[in-house]
Amino acid sequence: MTYALTMIEAEIFRALADPTRRAVFERLAAGEMSVSELRTGMTVSQPAVSQHLAVLRGAGLVVERRAGRNAFYRADPQGLAPLLSWIERYRTFWPERIERLKAVLKDMDQ
Amino acid sequence: MTYALTMIEAEIFRALADPTRRAVFERLAAGEMSVSELRTGMTVSQPAVSQHLAVLRGAGLVVERRAGRNAFYRADPQGLAPLLSWIERYRTFWPERIERLKAVLKDMDQ
DNA sequence: CAAATCAATAAGTGATGACTTATGCTTTGA
DNA sequence: TCAAAGCATAAGTCATCACTTATTGATTTG
């Protein structure tokens, strides 16, 4: 269970480690796009794009929608949740003044 | 300037992509440790540890303190700030959690 | 039906990265 | 002062990864 979470984390970190893949994710965050649309404006080949999409999909960062011979992809920002959780683990080590601010903000939200 | 930030982002993502390096960071988040202390409980060689530390240091994720022949390292959680900023770009898809963190980040930037 | 389009997969290649052992440099302590 | 400890760097090796071209499968269109 903890292991499974760690594995997802690992896939996310690995997926986002590549600059080209981050660029793909960022473009797909702006809106759904077909693979060929995504390819325009990129210097890499179509198979390279497909390969990047497969990695992002495996990490849960993008979702696919098929329509005829087209494949539309969009970013799934909720896929970033495990990454956020990972970062939040270290909030406890952040300076105390930030912790205090956090509490204040949390209070304000309610 | 935006470019510089992007480069730091890239280094952080790359640094955290490796599971061993994440483990090192996590251990150093628990408290300062010398390189040899860090090495105990790890399967890799001492040079490997030093190399990982150099990468983490380059990404701004750990800081070094030298004392005699010892080198003590500790995690710098503020080094994660650019990573949070990156995630924060997708906040429109994350109604509430990120909004709080955004304020925290703003404070950390000072 | 045939040709073209869209996308994934196959297979191979070069670059990058994580490791190793060997070595050097600095500091400590007997 | 000399040996050992602590750590970094050098250099080389092997695995992984991002890319390429070639091909295939599936769908649309002429």
From TrEMBL, chains A, B:
<dbReference type="InterPro" id="IPR001845">
    <property type="entry name" value="HTH_ArsR_DNA-bd_dom"/>
</dbReference>
<feature type="domain" description="HTH arsR-type">
    <location>
        <begin position="1"/>
        <end position="95"/>
    </location>
</feature>
<dbReference type="InterPro" id="IPR051081">
    <property type="entry name" value="HTH_MetalResp_TranReg"/>
</dbReference>
<keyword id="KW-0804">Transcription</keyword>
<dbReference type="InterPro" id="IPR036388">
    <property type="entry name" value="WH-like_DNA-bd_sf"/>
</dbReference>
<dbReference type="InterPro" id="IPR036390">
    <property type="entry name" value="WH_DNA-bd_sf"/>
</dbReference>
<keyword id="KW-0805">Transcription regulation</keyword>
<protein>
    <submittedName>
        <fullName>ArsR family transcriptional regulator</fullName>
    </submittedName>
</protein>
<dbReference type="InterPro" id="IPR011991">
    <property type="entry name" value="ArsR-like_HTH"/>
</dbReference>
<keyword id="KW-0238">DNA-binding</keyword>
<dbReference type="GO" id="GO:0003700">
    <property type="term" value="F:DNA-binding transcription factor activity"/>
</dbReference>
<dbReference type="GO" id="GO:0003677">
    <property type="term" value="F:DNA binding"/>
</dbReference>
<dbReference type="Pfam" id="PF12840">
    <property type="entry name" value="HTH_20"/>
</dbReference>
